[in-house]
């Protein structure tokens, strides 16, 4: 492959976690004052996408589903060095849970003829971690999650990942096309160059695609979302009993009793 | 990567810092049809601002729809109190009925994180570009002329015909580029401030305020900030109170107390403690403020650059007045107009920009600075009298004057007088001091 890979990176706009509070009376999340920012783990996804492009060539396209003002996160990605950005924005997407969200992103990735799709580990506002595997599932592509490091094998059309697993790591090779969820904090996201940042925030205009453009207008939105938010509760800290014992034997006895 | 355009010479002017002075300059220039870019180091304008006080708004009102601006309370009442270290308080309060009516004497308590963001937004709506999270590190000069800025970003140089330096009191860029001498230590004041949050109703009850009305309280004497030349302040916001001290850095260096100890002692003064009791601390910050007056004002105009606001030393910190916001805005406005006029003639040289300095001198800004410029010197000379002897004498005199005992009132009056005269050094001393300080309230 001489002209490199088509790399897509998924970025999501979230309320700045520092500004989100829980209203103690209603138990609801108060997001109204919160600034909208790019999901922090997505910086790692963008960085990994740019590093991969540096290695194998090709292009990086940032992709986001959200309201019209979510173009701001595409501008962040383009500022860092992504070539282009596509916004999936349509009132029809409203109320989508992770299933239709990943369907829309999957269709868009197909449309972009993606070889590799990057996502972050999870979001700071919903943190399901379901979206990247969802994209892979919808498209029947391979998936690499909790990725610490990547090694590209362009001549074999393969991507090898070092994955964090309980008690150590494993190395997995996947065939393209593949969806990669980068581990949070696994690389150092690069700062945007000054002129690139100015470009991203002024002259760059992302494309906007609707549900109809993707042919999924009947498969997204609240009605087709299998999960519903039932409500929110604040958990009060549970008072814990504390006891000091003098002898280790006594402690062992008490533990045995509980067990 | 898709091609990155080069933005050198794409903008007519670069504004360093999107505070009050910077946003005013940008707004003024953008309205005049110039392409302007503001470069701000914070994640949004105002986030790094520790100002705890009153925004003076005459010019802002002309430039914007000020009714839409995020603000806290207007100043309905000002108090000035002398505090002695022993716990005495002698105070005066002013609450003219006119302050309760629009435009409320153009004095509003604001939270700068909210206000500065909104204000920069007005410049953006007028067509200016705002780049945040970018720190200007130096100026680019060619043949002695400023031709652009260097920033902390990769590929971080940007060139433009004009640079407006609006970086605030800690003017590292202007200094690094040799446009300004480092502030003398005794020309800089240190300020520590904390913001405490209260229940709105409780706050209004405590300070006897309602609606949008608020209180601006100023404190002097060694009960306010120890042995230093300076004072304390307390401002009421909607649901918070800003409380802090401002004093000369020179004193801070000699004094063994740390700034937060000075603030802590001020908060524990019997006159202050009940006002700040309870609540929750939501913010704490320390900052430098130039207090130099007209003598420490740098050259405002250079080939290719102008300096505005605090960076230009345009702060009035006389002890009675702590004003910088109005002068920041006024200087940004005059600078913006001067830059637009110069560029209209295709010029960026010092001579073409001179109208900035002339207009500023003709405005109240420099006049005010000169009028009060002597105060800090006088205050330093008379430190012991002003900050130590006088507050104590006033406390004792008040005590004597209003004493309830079995002696006639005449004796109370003469005892009160003798306390004051002891402090001033007799009638002659009092007359001399009165003469010396006559300008303070004029
Ligand atoms: C129970 C529940 C109910 C919800 N109900 C609603 C609702 O009614 N209405 C509503 O609007 N939202 C709702 N949400 C939020 C919405 O479903 C999720 O935000 C969205 O599906 C993405 O899931 P996530 O944030 O958990 O992403 P994760 O799977 O945690 O994200 C991992 C990565 O996927 C990528 N990614 C995730 N979302 C996007 C996106 N939108 N665009 C581009 N990339 C993305 C990013 O790279 C991200 O780092 C709900 C969430 C939950 C958990
Ligand atoms: C505690 C305190 C109380 C005060 N109380 C009052 C009061 O009651 N009334 C009053 O009128 N005045 C008061 N002042 C003074 C007033 O705050 C200032 O005079 C005013 O803010 C000056 O505005 P400015 O735009 O010049 O600077 P600033 O408001 O300081 O703005 C400078 C901006 O430049 C940015 N910046 C700095 N360096 C760089 C760089 N290298 N690159 C990019 N961006 C940079 C900063 O982040 C900031 O946003 C007070 C000051 C303090 C510290």
TrEMBL record, chain A:
PROSITE patterns found in the cross-reference section: ETF_BETA
Endpoints of the signal sequence: none
Example of a GO MF term: electron transfer activity
A Pfam family hit: ETF
CDD domains listed in its UniProt record: ETF_beta
Positions of the Electron transfer flavoprotein alpha/beta-subunit N-terminal domain: 26-218
SMART domains assigned: ETF
Positions in coiled-coil regions: none
Top-level lineage group: Archaea
Entry's family note: Belongs to the ETF beta-subunit/FixA family.
Protein name: Electron transfer flavoprotein subunit beta/FixA family protein
Organism: Halapricum hydrolyticum
UniProtKB/TrEMBL annotation, chain B:
Record keyword Zinc present: no
Keyword Hydrolase: no
Ranges where the FixC-like C-terminal domain occurs: 377-440
Molecular function in Gene Ontology: oxidoreductase activity
Residues making up the signal peptide according to the UniProt record: none
Residue ranges occupied by any ETF-QO/FixC ubiquinone-binding domain in the UniProt entry: 212-289
Cofactor(s) required for function per UniProt: FAD
Protein name from the UniProt record: FAD-dependent oxidoreductase
């Amino acid at each position: 492959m001489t002209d490199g890979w088509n790399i897509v990176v998924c970025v999501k706009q979230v309320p700045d976690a520092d500004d989100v509070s829980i209203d103690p009376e209603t138990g609801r999340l108060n997001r109204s004052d919160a600034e909208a920012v790019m999901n922090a783990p997505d910086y790692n996804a963008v960085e990994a996408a740019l590093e991969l492009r540096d290695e194998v060539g090709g292009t990086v396209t940032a992709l986001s589903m959200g309201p019209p003002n979510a173009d701001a996160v595409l501008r962040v990605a383009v500022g860092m060095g992504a070539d282009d950005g596509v916004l999936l924005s349509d009132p029809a997407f409203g109320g989508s849970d992770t299933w239709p969200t990943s369907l829309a992103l999957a269709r868009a990735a197909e449309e972009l003829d993606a070889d590799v799709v990057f996502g972050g580990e999870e979001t700071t506002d919903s943190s399901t971690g379901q979206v990247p595997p969802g994209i892979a599932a919808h498209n029947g592509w391979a998936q690499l999650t909790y990725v610490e490091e990547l090694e590209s094998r362009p001549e074999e059309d393969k991507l090898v990942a070092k994955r964090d697993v309980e008690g150590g790591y494993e190395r997995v090779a996947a065939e393209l096309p593949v969806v990669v969820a980068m581990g949070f904090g696994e690389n150092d996201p690069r700062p945007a160059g000054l002129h690139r940042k100015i470009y991203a925030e002024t002259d760059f205009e992302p494309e906007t695609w609707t549900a109809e453009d993707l042919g999924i207008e009947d498969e997204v939105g609240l009605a087709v979302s299998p999960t519903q938010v039932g409500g929110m509760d604040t958990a009060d800290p549970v008072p814990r009993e504390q006891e000091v014992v003098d002898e280790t034997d006594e402690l062992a006895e008490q533990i045995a009793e509980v067990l | 990567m898709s091609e990155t355009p080069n933005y050198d010479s794409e903008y007519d002017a670069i504004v360093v810092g999107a505070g009050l002075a910077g946003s005013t300059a940008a707004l003024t220039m953008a309205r005049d049809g110039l392409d302007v870019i503001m470069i701000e180091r914070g994640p949004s304008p105002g986030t790094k601002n520790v100002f705890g006080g009153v925004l003076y708004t005459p010019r802002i009102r002309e430039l914007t729809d000020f009714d839409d601006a995020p603000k806290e309370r207007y100043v309905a009442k000002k108090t000035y109190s002398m505090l002695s270290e022993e716990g005495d308080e002698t105070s005066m309060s002013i609450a003219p009925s006119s302050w309760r009516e629009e435009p409320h004497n153009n004095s509003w308590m604001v939270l700068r994180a909210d206000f500065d963001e909104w204000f920069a937004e007005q410049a953006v709506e007028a067509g200016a570009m705002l780049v945040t999270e970018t720190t200007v590190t130096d100026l680019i000069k060619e043949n002695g002329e400023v031709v652009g800025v260097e920033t902390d970003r990769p590929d971080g140089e940007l060139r433009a015909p004009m640079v407006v330096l609006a970086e605030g009191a800690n003017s590292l860029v202007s200094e690094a580029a040799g446009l300004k001498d480092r502030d003398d230590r005794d020309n800089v004041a240190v300020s520590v401030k904390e913001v405490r949050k209260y229940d709105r109703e409780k706050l209004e009850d405590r300070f006897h305020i309602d609606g949008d009305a608020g209180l601006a309280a100023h404190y002097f004497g060694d009960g306010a900030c120890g042995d230093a030349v300076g004072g304390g302040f307390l401002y009421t916001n909607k649901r918070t109170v800003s409380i802090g001290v401002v004093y000369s850095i020179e004193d801070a260096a000699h004094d063994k107390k740390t700034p937060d100890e000075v603030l802590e002692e001020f908060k524990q003064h019997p006159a202050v403690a009940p006002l700040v009791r309870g609540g929750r601390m939501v913010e704490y910050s320390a900052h430098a403020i130039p207090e130099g007056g007209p003598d420490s004002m740098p050259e405002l105009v250079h080939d290719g650059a102008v300096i505005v606001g605090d960076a230009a030393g345009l702060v009035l910190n006389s002890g009675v007045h702590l004003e910088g916001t109005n002068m920041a805005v006024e200087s940004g406005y005059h600078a913006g107009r001067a830059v637009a006029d110069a560029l209209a003639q295709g010029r960026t040289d010092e001579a073409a920009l001179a109208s900035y300095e002339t207009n500023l001198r003709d405005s109240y800004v420099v006049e005010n600075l000169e009028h009060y410029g002597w105060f800090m010197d006088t205050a330093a000379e008379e430190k012991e009298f002003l900050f130590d002897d006088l507050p104590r004498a006033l406390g004792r005199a008040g005590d004597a004057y209003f004493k309830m005992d079995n002696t006639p009132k005449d004796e109370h009056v003469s005892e009160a007088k003798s306390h004051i005269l002891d402090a001033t050094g007799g009638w002659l001393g009092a007359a001399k001091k009165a003469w010396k300080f006559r300008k303070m309230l004029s």
